[in-house]
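Researcher: We are triaging several targets before committing to wet-lab work. For this one, the compound of interest is S-adenosylmethionine. I'm pasting the protein sequence and the ligand SMILES. What I need is the predicted three-dimensional arrangement of the protein with the ligand bound, expressed as C-alpha cells, so it can go straight into our comparison scripts without reformatting.
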Amino acid sequence: MHYFTSDPTAPDRPRDVEFTVGGVAYRLRTGAGVFSADRLDPGTGVLLRKAPLPVRSGVFLDLGSGYGPIACVLADRLPGATVYAVDVNARARELVARNAAAVGAAGRVIAAAPDDVPDDVVFDEIWSNPPIRIGKDELHDMLDRWLPRLGPDGTAWLVVARHLGGDSLHKWLAGRGWQVARHASQQGYRVLAVTRPSPADLLPVDRGDT
Ligand SMILES: C[S@@+](CC[C@H](N)C(=O)[O-])C[C@H]1O[C@@H](n2cnc3c(N)ncnc32)[C@H](O)[C@@H]1O
C-alpha cells in the first residue's frame, strides 16, 4: 500500500508529530497510510523554513497536503487566510481537518479531493512537497492542472529532493513557460519559486528591421 492511494484501509495507528516553524511549536496527528507519519518530512521542513511565509492573507493551496503540516502552518500564521489542502488520500484529508481544528483554523483549511475544489478558485500562492513517487507523467499532469490556477502575481513554492529529480523538474517547469528560480538549497533539497513569466519576457523581440 502506498501513501498516495486514495482509500487506505490499513489500521489507523494514530500518533503525533511535533515540529517548530518560526519559533512556533506544532503538534499534529498522523497515522498509518499517510506520508511521513512518524516525523515532519525533512523536505517539508526545508520548505517551511526556507520559503518566505506569506505576510498577507489570501487563498492558498497546499498541493498534496498529507496530514497537513504546510496547510496548518499557513493557516496558523495568517488568521485571515483560506487554505485548500488537496490530497487524493482520504485518510490524509481526515487528518488535515482534525489538525486544522487543533490549530484553531477549522473552517479556514478546506480539506478537499482534487475534483472537489471549485473551478473558479484562484490561488495567491501554492505550496507543495509534491508526490514525486507517483511517476513523472502523473506529477507533470498534476502540476499542469494546478499551476495555471495561480493568480497573476502568485508564486508556487515547491520542494524536491535533488536525487529525486529536483533539477530536472526545474528544467521541465521552465520548458512549460514558467519562470523558475532556485530559491534555496539545503540538505539535498531544492526549494523552487515558480511564477508567471514577466510581460517583458513575453514581448516579441524588436529586431529593428521594420
Ligand atoms: C510528498 S507527500 C507530502 C505530504 C505533506 N504535504 C507533507 O509534507 O507531509 C505528497 C502527497 O501528495 C499526495 N498526492 C499524490 N497524488 C496526488 C494528486 N494527484 N493530487 C493531489 N495529491 C496527491 C499524496 O497522497 C501525498 O500525501
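Researcher: Any quick observations?
Model: Residues 3-4, 35-36, 41, 44, 64-66, 69-70, 86-89, 92, 114, 129, 131, 134, 142 surround S-adenosylmethionine (CB under 6 Å).
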